[in-house]
Fold these 4 entries.
Entry 1:
Amino acid sequence: MKAITANRLEDGVVVYLGADDGWTSDLAKAARFEDEDAKAALAGAEARAGEIAGAYLIEVSDAGAPAGRETLRETIRKDGPTVRLDLGYQAEA
Amino acid sequence: MYRYDEFDATMVAERVAQFRGQVARRLSGDLTEDQFKPLRLMNGLYLQLHAYMLRVAVPYGAMSSKQMRRLGEVARKYDRGYGHFTTRQNIQYNWPALVDVPDLLDELADVEMHAIQTSGNCIRNVTSDQYAGATAEEIEDPRPYCEMIRQWSTFHPEFSFLPRKFKIAVTAAPHDRAAVKVHDIGLILYKNDEGETGFEVIVGGGLGRTPYVGHTIRKFLPKEYLLSYLEAILRVYNLEGRRDNMYKARIKILVNSEGADKFAEAVEAEWAQIKDNGIDLPREEIARINDYFAPPAFETLSAESAALEEKKAADKDFARWVRANTVAHKIPGYAIANISLKPIGGIPGDISDVQMEAVADIAEKYSLDEIRATHEQNLVLPHVKKDDLYAVYKALKEADLATANIGMVSDIIACPGLDYCSLANARSIPIAQRISERFADLGQQEELGEIKIKISGCINACGHHHVGHIGILGVDKKGEEFYQVTLGGSGAEDASLGEIAGRGLSSDQVVDAVEKLVGVYRQHRQDNERFLDTYRRLGADPFKEALYEAA
């Protein structure tokens, strides 16, 4: 499964395209796409250029966690720097 | 120190105002990200993993207390209370919001700072010896030349869209602390046999995916021709450098594919045409710039300080700090004091807002208002009276800035790596932290002497791993972090590129590997030779054997 991630335009924080079509900071609430639908969904997200920058597809597990080759990178984006647990979304958890 | 004149101040203010408009147009949707990206990069603003990242220029690493204090305030107000000093003597903020960046830049402009030419295919911040103007080793102060290069290169219309980024480093001391041989252009100011001062001009060095030690293309350049000669080099590069392939676009590829002799000929031919065209500064202008760097008001002191000796005898940790972190000053009774940004287990180069303010206060009181950043991600108080060293040490200790490890095994260069950087393949900082913790004992570190470990999280080599005595390169193997070890590199006057030791190691193995390498050194060390000297004397074999024995 794929999800769409980007950085929010005004402050750069990591966001995911939500199931409600808004942007969410919570990957678990991200919309999930079958591989064949993902490209079109990404094009739709990219068109919302006034909201985000640098949208791309990531691989997610059925449980909605980062998966595949970029698991570590996307886990770090999702949580925050592994060397500063007081920063990023992990600090709010 | 250099102070902005009306032109500098106007240029920077206009640039911020222009960027403010660009940001507003991006936020309103008038600019797409593709249109905006080159504009933000021209103002040092990147988009990284978690947020935007702003890289602020610190020309040749020199700052006043006022500037450092402002950097701390900005960290608190617009960021998450810290900054990160880089291998280009700059500082990066990891979390600024795009909407705040114009205000942030205005506050920096108030103290004569900016983020211009910290990104993009232009001439980047010029770097230099952090001991400039303070060390007895130097022929003369290199900072006026750095400042001339800064002014010449700022917004240079011909060199704003080079094939690739371009980095210049200048030193005026035989002991190279500026890594001049691994820069696009490295300049060494020295006195020739006739007693004239001029530059050895080294071109085509660099790290990254294709590392090279630079070639000397001119043994002696009379110093008054500095700018016209640089212009000739840049012209040849701008015309001949490859624009079809980003990985082959740096000047090092041009110089090394054509051959240094041929490149030198082309530069000389170009220079012959332009050297008398008024590019070089007139004598009065050179004098004007030199005046900014007139020595500060040093007192006449005796060379030795009884107070210092007394405190050293009474406080052995202080004595260790003096041995490890201070070096000789050119003026009797003064010392150069290094501030390590490498606490044991800490993040190399990171400094909190409160620490920045502490450094500003200490420099104001004890270092004639001057601070330097080093390419090894530390800070320097260049002009401290020996009588004041104990007070400085106490104040630094209070701020958790008194680790006595300069040049030692825990004084590690590490790029931000995959914890922050969108280009990284693997994390760098946790490796640095674990090595630092493994060798935590400062007495042991001092006994080991100079060992330079440098860690990069990808092949772009921001962590200078190729020139580490021990270099560590993070790579991604099918989604897992692996680390490739290189041995025998140096970025100093004895520059060399490290050789790959063997197959990559897992994150768990790499700290043990460093300990094994240090063990081989300890076993074979003769007299007081450094790790690097032992490696060069013995060759790679005993080190490789130790690394891969029964592993």
Entry 2:
Amino acid sequence: MKKIAENRLPELYQALSAERKLYLPLEEGGVVGYGLYSPEKKTALTAPSTVKSPKELFFPQVEGVVNFQMQGKNIDILPIEMPKEDFVVMGVRACDVRSFDVLDRVFLSDPVDGYYAARREHGTIVSLACDQPQNSCFCEAFGIDAAAPAGDVRCFIREGVLYWQALTDKGQALTDSLFGLLEEAGPAGQEQQEAFTAETKEKLQALPYHGLDLSAFTPDRLGELFHDPKWKKLSQACLGCGSCTFVCPTCQCYDVRDFDTGHGIQRYRCWDSCMYSDFTMMAHGTPRPTQLEKFRQRFMHKLVYFPSNNEGMYSCVGCGRCVRKCPIHMHIVKVIKALGGKKDE
Amino acid sequence: MSEALIPMLGVVTAIRQDTPDVKTFRVEALGGGKCFEHMPGQCAMLSIPGVGEAMFSITSSPTVKEYMEFSIKKCGCLTDWLHRMDVGQQILIRGPYGNGFPVEGELKGQNLLFIAGGIGLAPLRSVINYCRHYRQNYGNIQILYGSRSKDDLVDYQEILDEWMQDEGIKVYLTIDRAQEGWDGHVGFVPSYVEELGFDPQGKVLVCGPPIMIKFTLQSLEKLGFTKQQVFTTMELRMKCGVGKCGRCNIGDKYVCKDGPVFRFDELSELPDEY
């Protein structure tokens, strides 16, 4: 394990961004989000959460897929170069690190999504253990240890010192590139880590959603859960705004569209939302005509359909962003509780 | 692995007007031949830059080596555009997608009953012509095809000139309402199924409008067929074709990759959301 004093973090950022792009939580206009580091930016590494997850660094909100030129009856296909820039994303919390496992299941399964795979290959994840779980957080329900995130490098901050531990070869290579900047943490590092873990555990146990029970959500109950009459009441006030899907670190639905650039046609893909009315619209209608079906689809996917196809892995990491952002305060925790999840009293 | 969303180039080499709103397009690779191989019941994404991209079933049989055909009903932005284009137009194509009908599995050696309504004949035509090509591998073949009117029968000339001339293939046609110049059967497909009283053995392949499929299944069950004997092919909105864009699922199954062909007993286990 290595370490660096918290007040020397700007030096660490400089060093990390010298050879490659560095993304980390930045504060701009009172909003914290992942952004490209430069010395004049206001960093917010220890902010409790970011509005959006770092998903877009690997799966951008909009990205070009291929260009076309039309000439009479002829079409030219002009490929777009795959991403090939190395980058580091720093400060990723345990929940968001887990979200990449979920996204990997989608984008790295056959046929592999080349754009996502290239970014995963070129990106190095430096995670940061969480010491400020929010009241809206419930990562624990998915077996995520907030104090010990995965990633290529794992960090935690305690008593003014950032501790740094490489977990993968990629993480080790990054560590080696910081030669001279990081000091050996020695046995004190281990002690600090144990203390950090104990403190975080205590905070997690005091959270309102501690003990959230997911045992009712199993693939064999698919039909029963789908037909539960409670969906009607739960979905009644949903505005279909799609905020939950856009801030969600695991939502991966996308649209493919064409745009006239003035020089040709660009085919691009962009985030889409199952909450939108035209998501499944066809010439003869849609199988999900009201908000009830759309709302049910989102939660059934995360809690039943996705686990059914992925050895029980839920497509939710308990980051709490949708809980904080929903304009009508209807969210996955309420759905879990209403449909059979219980809170351990 | 090449990027799944990037299409290849084809060219439209023939266009046939089947009905007032259905045309059949022949697509070849630029240097001739097919863009890729497929199995009966599989689909392909067709697109025109700046207009749109959509999934269509491949109506030609894999045994045709020179081209692929798509029978397309005019019903939206892309299909309107396709209906206006001329021979020689280049087109974007990617595929094949989906599982197809189990022509080399469960259907092999079986008596086959095909039931189609309207444009629903398009995916079944691929299977029918495949089975005609490998005739010795299948038992009796019966085809029941219905449409709104005589003018709405897709592939009518091929049905008259080829299918009806084959020995061991029986074709039953019906139209919804009586019409001048039609001396065949008049009535909806499900009631015609009951009227003909098919022997409940072998396998049945059904495709047509959802309402026709629903009542046809009821008719088949009345005749003693079980859900395990009946196959259909589904259609939901698709963008990627490879199970990632997240919109064509029925429960935990993606129509683009786990379907589009489902056996009715499998389908009835899934939520009724299609």
Entry 3:
Amino acid sequence: MKARILGLAAFAACLVMPVYAAVALSEAAGSYTISPAGSSIRFSIGKAGGGGFDGAFSRFKGTIRIDNRDVGRSRVDLIIYPESVGTGQGRIDAFLRSDAVFDAANSPEIQFRSTSVTRTGDTTALVTGQLTARGKTFPEKFTAELGGLKGGTIKFHVTGKVLRSRYGMDVGTPLYSNVVDFDMTLTGRRG
Amino acid sequence: MQPSIANTSTRYGWAMIILHWLIGIIFIGQFALGFVMVRIESQRTSFELIQLHKSFGFLLLGLIILRIAWRLGNAAPALPASVGTLERRTAPLAHFALYAFQVALPLSGWALVSVSTLEIPTMPFNQFVMPNLPLAESDAAESFWSAAHWYLAYAGIALVALHIGAALRHHFLLRDNVLTRMITPSSGGE
């Protein structure tokens, strides 16, 4: 379920330029390392009868590279460590880490590698990439919105939906939705 | 003659017989399922078995409500004349206790899922969302209802064992029709 991380990179590229009309692509271009301090990867899964449950991954790493000439060639790579999942309920965390869901012991990383970045607006972009979790890889899409670029720090807000059943994590459906909503804030520091 | 749906003064009708065996089999199955589901190693299988246990629990609750309604409108047949005074007095108590456990067990399970801080929804056989009982959720309440459900289950299965033992005693030692009349329905004439 969680895996997504997505690609923000792409959007970064895109975003950067437009909205911040003041931010020239040339200014945003470069490589950024995702900084856990200013970043968060949250997810939410709806429940039958209403409500849902929320969680977050506290450990992840990645890079965002914004191409100077062609936003479409920008890249985002992200690795999430499912062992770091937290929902505020210890028993649920243990369940998520177990082989019922992430099987964190045998699949310690969830990876996202962007394959394309398409600008969709002044500050938004669609990031497509390959998401790998529990040994299964599928294409996923995330929407990235540029939140700001200041002093070598770039920030994106990334959202997307992932179907968990494809990754061998269908346990609990239909009590819990197959759709996992990701909501991430990724802050990259140049360098 | 056609088998009768209703009880007579000496025999059970088929409605009561079917409800008896259906509830009996599910009840014992639920005990076995409950025992296994909390001991199994796979968290996924455990989760799925617990949902199945909840589904059958609600099925049981529905069947027992039907059974009690039917029983209230249909007096149970009298015991054979050969049954002694002591058993004539204690058997109704044992049967009342069996009914009480059939109601209390599913209700205590429903209370348990309602107060659990895991907030796992209940969908009997994935068909519809069963609302929770209006009880406050807390770890303490969950521990209480978990223990209550567990003790009731063990006491209930002990009572079922007593019930089965008594039925076998009637059949093999006393050689009366107490067991067979719960198998062959009345055909109206008796």
Entry 4:
Amino acid sequence: MKAELEAIKTEALQALKEIETLDALESLRITYFGRRGKLTDVMKGMGKLSKEERPAMGKLSNEVRATLTEAFEDLTEKLQSQQREQQLETEAIDITLPGRKPAYGKAHPVMQIMERIEAIFGQMGFEVVTGPDVETEYYNFDALNTPSDHPARDLHDTFYLTDGHLLRTHTSPVQIRTMENQQPPVRIIVPGKCYRVDYDVSHTPMFHQVEGLLVDKHATFSELKGILTSFARQMFGDQTQMRFRPHYFPFTEPSAEVDISCAVCQGKGCRSCGNTGWVEILGAGAVDPAVFEAVNYDPDEVTGFAFGMGVERIANLQFSIPDIRTFYENDLRFLRQF
Amino acid sequence: MNVTLNWLKTYIDFEFSPSELSDRLTMLGVEVETIKQLGTGLEGVVVGKVTDVRPHPNADKLVLCQVEVGEAEPLQIVCGAPNVRESMFAPVATIGATLPIGLTIKSAKLRGEVSHGMLCSEKELGFSEDAAGLMELPTDISLGTPLREALGLDDVMFELEVTPNRPDCLSLIGVAREIRAETGNPLKLPAVDLEESETDIGGLTSVTIDAPDLCPRYAARMIQGVKVAESPAWLQQRLESVGVGVINNIVDVTNFVLMEYGQPLHAFDYHKLAENRIVVRRAADGEALTTLDEVARELTTDMLVIADAEKPVALAGIMGGYDSEITETTCDVLLESAYFNPSSVRATAKALGVGTEASYRFERGADPGAVLAALDRAAQLIAELAGGTVCEGTVDVYPGQQPLREIQLRPNRVNFILGIELEATEMEQILSRLGFDVEASGDTYQVTVPTFRSDITREIDLIEEIARVYGYDNIPTTLPKGDIPVPAPDPKVEVRKSVKRFLLAAGMMEAINYSFCDPNCFEKIRLASDSPLRDALPLQNPLSPEMSVLRTSLIPGLLENTQHNRNHQINTIALFEIGGVFVREGDQKEPERIAGVLAGQIGDGIYGNPYRNPDFFDIKGLVEGMLETCGITKYTLQKTDVPTFHPGRNAAVLLAETQVGTFGEVHPEVLENYDLPYKAYLFELDLEALVDAAVFAKHFEPIPIYPKVERDLAIVVDKAVLSDMPTERIYKTGGEWVESVRLFDVYEGEQVPEGKKSLAYTIVYHSATETLTDKAVNALHERVVKHLHQELGAELRM
């Protein structure tokens, strides 16, 4: 019996070396460990042994069984891992096949810029307020120190409705509406649509402005410079240089036009800045006392400043779109770019 | 307004280069828009002297010339001009020069003789049409001098943008004053030294002002015995250098003085004035005047005219009359210099649709103080250039004379407004250089405003003057010290943001359309004839019929965008817009709407993500998602009869009985109207209504700790049963144990009897307080099935 066990062990271990698949391994397992397996058969003969032989044979047979079991398990594990590797190999894919991108939309480029402007001024404590597009002469012009015979009215080519109303030519009427309803301090920005009779590559009859107004007991021109410098650095980069040029607006005095250094040429002068090195971005100034009087603020008690910028213009400093009317065609090939 | 460097230098000395001058003026508020080098196109054209003229051996009409151009050897030039002669000075285009007429000079052989350049006529140099002979040059110019320099054409022109408040800068002297403010150098005003004849003007003419409110000052001079002719070259060249056309010596002088002083002048042919006199009055009813531009103009009684004893002869401050204009036969000239009311000139010019150099200045405000200086200057120049004598005396009717304006200036107010610390004496110096008279009185200054600064009426105007000359760049940059107001949160902003965020995440692109639209669009979207949306506000002055009314809906714009994109072969269309519309009714006249369109196909059409057509439930999902993102859960949907939509595939959204929007499949006829070959789906909601219903306050709900039990339920019901009817009943019967009901299949066809459909739901049972047993769930589930059977006739589908 001892010889038989030894033979089975040798034979089985030998047979295992030939095994290459899990199926073959299973049949071999049955050959030895099955109900009629060789090892099982030998074990069945244990009962015929003498009492004296039994412990030694029992021990030997357990050893053989343990050895073989371990060998079978090792091989099982080895074959399983080989099989998984093979399977993974067959599952390899062409990773250059297209990814399934979830659809995502984009805000209109003009809105993207407007939202950025709002965010920058929001951090500086400016509240967003809005007003109507259809306005009266009073709010759009008269209250802003631009009476009807004023030559400055020529600067705005205005759309009129047939009932005497007009489409606001700037967002400045909201200054008046706000001050009529609120006592200082006032710190607002007014994003919105404006309209002027103009239609060419650099003008659309509808455009967007962001207006700003700060009124307090003692707001100075130097603070206006501070606020706008901070805005420009955040909007256009911290290397941006600024230039405040005297200008004229009926509702501010002193008034300024504000230029930033041309981003294309870093102020050296190029075609996109007309060789000046500067690009105009907004108009600003201290609130004219006549405007305060129109809203019953006492110009001796409060001072303030206002500023206004064209959103399309600022957008186009970044995008350089040759025909600004493209903004409002809503061509998806265009909208997707921003 | 154009000025040139050389011309400016006749009024003030300065050393600035063109670009420096441009910067200085710009930083003073007189923005230089362009700088242009004049006299270009004459490179290579120099002054030459003809030293020898010989016949051409092979041509009768040509001669061989030796021409000295300041170099070692004279040039041989073949010439055919009849006036060529020895010792004459003439322009020589040397080899390589390109003339303004486009000719490039090369070394050439003419009939066998070499020619090293070209002697030029005025026409060849682009100066005039005179091609009869060579242009003759003065003989005191050194040979070889570039012609541009020799003729004083070497100048730089600045195009200025003068703001409406600064009419004083619409003149060379005005700009020179700005340079004085910058440099402190004195002005060199033209010296006027009139020689008057013994004939007194008083005996020849008179001026009556019947409308002193519109004409505060009218002055005139007489020049007798002029000869109207072409102006001398220097005058022509001055005017041309700033872009003013030349006419004749009389008119050119008035234009020259206009540019110089900014004072518009007008010259009348004295003998064409009835009774040879001037009446300044309002036009009579029905009067007409043919102006210089040969347009007959009907006048109204609020328009100011210059008349003679009988009829209007000029539109005051705007344009002269055709019949009294200076012609070749004019010998006696009545010269007008006046000051007219700005509003009146502006209103008349606007009403008649004319704008001239004169009206441009008068309507902004001319200088009543310059009236006489300009008049004398012009009279003297006319006498000099056109012969004639200036009559003795001036007529000067000045009913509107005003004392000079005085303004009190508080130096500490200047510093307060600007945020600077400037010494009062520096302020005084700045104002003096600008021409203000400044007197100290205690802590303040009494400032007298010169007549040419009509824009300065208040202390703040003086503060601006000080600021701009002091330099905006020198004002420090500080941050506001004031309190930051604390604004109340705006729920509208919140709704707009939430909805937009949702739509962007859902793959919709944001569009912005014009607020104007084509009134035909209402027909195109099949609005009912009595729809209030058709009552759009019309523009009085639209750009085009397609932009002639204000939109009452966002839908036409989005459909046009869809059409545009489809016309450009883009067929995956998902757009939305948030914006105002304009209605007449209600308090909220510009309600904000949110609308969107899905059309063509959805998906990106790639392997693994094929295109599919959108359908009603895509648009419905968007609407429901938007409501959900605003925290709006209580709403109902019901079919509408909005004609824009497919009658069986649309819905209105109701919040507590109020319709707040609609959505659905676009009606096939509307699709045709927009040339769309595929279906499109739209929604439009009233953003304001969402604001009222939105709930953004969030509350924590405990995360479930007990397991849930899912049961599927397939029932067969009549086709007429809507899918949410069973859902509603399941919730009702199931009570608080029903966490959710999900419809996962709808089926009609084989295995389902005719007229019936199968609906399959997953019901999730869950309790917040205990683990549900199978037994308990089964009991409840059976009750649900029973109720569905009783109430909807639902049969379990096996």
